[in-house]
Amino acid sequence: MHNITVALDAMGGDFGPSVTVPAAVQALSLFPELKVVLVGDEPSINTQLNQLGYQRSARLEVRHSDRVISNSEKPSFALRNSHDTSMRIAIDLVESENADACVSSGNTGALMALSRFRLKLLPGIDRPALVTALPTVSGNKTWMLDLGANASVDADSLFQFAVMGSALAEQHLGRKPKVAILNIGAEEIKGNDLVKRCAEMLTQTRSINYIGFVEGNELLHDAADVVVCDGFVGNTALKACEGTAQLILDKLKAKLTASTWKGWIARILFSDLITEVKSLNPDQYNGASLLGLRGIVIKSHGSADISALVHAIGEAVHEVKRQVPNHISDRLEAVLLERQY
Amino acid sequence: MHNITVALDAMGGDFGPSVTVPAAVQALSLFPELKVVLVGDEPSINTQLNQLGYQRSARLEVRHSDRVISNSEKPSFALRNSHDTSMRIAIDLVESENADACVSSGNTGALMALSRFRLKLLPGIDRPALVTALPTVSGNKTWMLDLGANASVDADSLFQFAVMGSALAEQHLGRKPKVAILNIGAEEIKGNDLVKRCAEMLTQTRSINYIGFVEGNELLHDAADVVVCDGFVGNTALKACEGTAQLILDKLKAKLTASTWKGWIARILFSDLITEVKSLNPDQYNGASLLGLRGIVIKSHGSADISALVHAIGEAVHEVKRQVPNHISDRLEAVLLERQY
Questions:
Q1: Pairwise CA distance, residues A28 & A222, whole Å
Q2: Shortest Cα distance, chain A CAs vs residue B323, angstroms
Q3: Minimal Cα–Cα distance from A287 to chain B, Å?
Q4: Domains of chain A
Q5: Stretch A152-159: mean pLDDT
Q6: Residue A79 — left, alpha, or beta (φ > 0 → left; ψ -120 to 50 → alpha)?
Q7: Interchain contact B191–A (C-beta under 8 A)
Q8: Is-annotated flag, keyword Lipid biosynthesis (chains A, B) (predicted)?
Q9: Which of A217, A266, A270 lies at the smallest CB-CB distance from B240?
């Protein structure tokens, strides 16, 4: 068994070491091949480790950093002033091949800018994209990208997202994934120039199993294995799903926590309903990958709790095992070759 | 009491006269001031009226048309070949002031193109926009536009949507509505140029109560009274909300229809939950207005059933009562004046 080393930005997120340290310790017990480098303020990290009564081992390393990139910093500013920050050091550990992947709950824009600057893009990729696996009604997954790394893109980038998403999904599914473009529904307005041109490109690419357009209401319905869209549309649609699910979940919880006889019976008989509905909320699955880089970078929610961050670390472990960047490179090469001839 | 005449495209939608005729008859009994002109194939309409045992009255008029615009027709083709179609005649009745509003469940693109061509845009408006009122968790409404009339827009149009949405919401609420722009969340990527420029314009416009950006997860959460976005984003976000709500509703319904003792208890405990969740699904509220025209046009879902179409006819009645186009004109004039000085 090969070791997998994950550099964890211990200062990122709303809760810093009080969440990142316990998450690292939990992840170590879950993934026997895992080694974690906790990057951040060493005294704070040690305090947390002592509180947990953690028995030091070679599988957990602490790498001190003096500074933190705040959530309000602009990416351009963060880029110029990243020296000695926990996020920068964690990314650099991947760049220097001292870590296989980096996980951070910190400033999204800074994470993207720094990753791109330090790790560089894969050949053939113009822009990285944030991807996550949405849950679907049948218990499958639909990978959706971009989720906000790019507020606007051109058709070439959207096409590259399709190739990257297809490569990622293929590694999970073990078969050629069905790839679709997110579009608006009315037959008579078949979307903007962007989706039309990308559809044309994908139709001409036989190595991608392009199945056409899907609409916003089909996202959690197994309509495709991979759905591509620009980052503005993807971010908004994903959050619209999450917001709606959360709203209904709150209503359901109110029923199940009522201190009436109805509430008691509901709690005894239907507590599994909460789990079922929760499993359909994309928000439950923490850890979006930044695809298109020469290294593995996982973005965790800023508000991630311990178990959510463990999920994101697990995502990093899986991507390392599956060698996602290499697989994307191979697929890109094949597609570029096909498009040349 | 003034009469309100609604021209109903009797041939539009997936079910034609079998839905439109009963909906017209129901609407007449609901709205005492209403007069309906059913436009379509007279024999088919009469068959339906006879089946319903409808007692003819001056409140229901049938206007024969020979042709129908099919759902698969492109707007440009429909525009050139609209002569004698039910949709065209219904719109023309508004244009000639023989009707106060038009309602159609037919081809969306054709309805928009024909309405724009026949009724013309209000002065100061570059593009019409589809708007609907989303339900919110507190039982209020949030008007969202554009929902797909335009696959892409510029900042001027988005600004005009904000003015139109604000005028419409003000007529409902009786106070100055809070207006927001839909944007992606991450602090560091505050959206694309479109939303940034529109935000700047709205910030400078004191007659609009602009409150800033909202995100996709806030749509059903009372974050604003009016939310503007381009038609691609709006259509996708709305459908994402609808798809998620429907999925969870289906899960709940499965529990409630189980013919086991648990199913029986679930029906006792959760039947009102279904109603509550349904009320949060934007799909339940049929009838989107096409704003920005010199007349009132309501687009109903193609799949609308009788009660959904009655809801859309009701929407037309309310807009006529509130003189929405006039109110939009007034607001636009005020805003243009303000922006000049």
A1: 33
A2: 28
A3: 15
A4: 1-121+292-323 (3.40.718.10), 126-285 (3.40.718.10)
A5: 93
A6: alpha
A7: yes
A8: yes
A9: A217
